[in-house]
Amino acid sequence: MAYETIIVETRDAVGLIRLDRPKALNALSRQLIADLNHALDGFEADDAIGAIVLTGSDKAFAAGADITEMQRLSYVDIFMHDFVAEWERLSRVRKPVIAAVAGFALGGGCELALMCDLVFAADTAKFGQPEITLGLIPGSGGTQRLTRAVGKAKAMDMVLTGRLIDAAEAERIGLVSRVVPAAELVETAVAAAAKIAGLSRPAVLMAKEAVSRSFETPLSDGIRTERRLFHSLFATEDAHEGMAAFLEKRPPAFQNR
Ligand code: CO8
């Protein structure tokens, strides 16, 4: 399907979504979020897809919510439409999502990256929550997911001053998983996604669910969730195949069941 604001393709078992509003540095308009959500729904429903990569352009992953759209909105507009609610779709995707970030990931763009499971950054990437400079605060999880990812000291620095950080600092503080040369960004992310997509899908989904749970629950509940999911994997053929393949010194043939 052709979209107005994104480009969608598949690379074998990997779904690739490129944000594509170059004139506005991929600012996240309502149309873009609707397009993104539609593409995510499609990849979630497609059994042939095992992992998703979300990327932007060389210049911008996304420069935040569309300020032109937001500036026109009143409190009643924004409250009655529960503005931002639809952005959360990405955080509910069950398949792993890798953000491949080059250039600016600011405001809602940084928050979108934080909703992904892995963040790969080009050495050109710049992350920030500059909403405070607009008289706003982050509205799509930036005060919460960012703080859980990098801790209070760095989150307060970014949220209160609006300071942008480069890829090296983002990696140092735990905001990104890997930094790679810009020219290799998308290929590296697609290769990692392909590797994940080739593993046992039930195990991958449960691994994602277990790690994600740690953001929402006390340790004892998280450990219990992990144990239940670990136990339940013994009901899958894939787990027995994976262990047998190791012992027989051959590659596993996972069937996703
Ligand atoms: N919204 C709308 N248009 C934008 C945005 C944006 N966020 N960012 C850039 N643009 C547009 C510019 O207006 C410009 O358009 P034009 O050519 O028509 O003038 C074009 O993109 C290119 O931008 P610049 O000329 O500014 O490019 P520079 O390379 O000089 O600067 C920057 C790049 C530093 C990224 C700069 O554009 C900038 O500071 N952008 C705004 C960043 C920002 O403040 N982001 C936070 C937005 S608020 C937010 O995200 C709140 C999220 C809360 C949840 C929201 C849920 C909907």
Automatic annotation (TrEMBL):
The keyword Lyase is assigned to this record: yes
Coiled coil: none
Gene3D superfamilies: 2-enoyl-CoA Hydratase, Chain A, domain 1 (3.90.226.10), Lyase 2-enoyl-coa Hydratase, Chain A, domain 2 (1.10.12.10)
SUPFAM superfamilies in the cross-refs: ClpP/crotonase
Lyase recorded as keyword: yes
GO molecular function terms noted in the UniProt entry: enoyl-CoA hydratase activity
Enzyme Commission number, as recorded: 4.2.1.17
Keywords: Lyase
Family membership: Belongs to the enoyl-CoA hydratase/isomerase family.
Protein name, per record: Enoyl-CoA hydratase
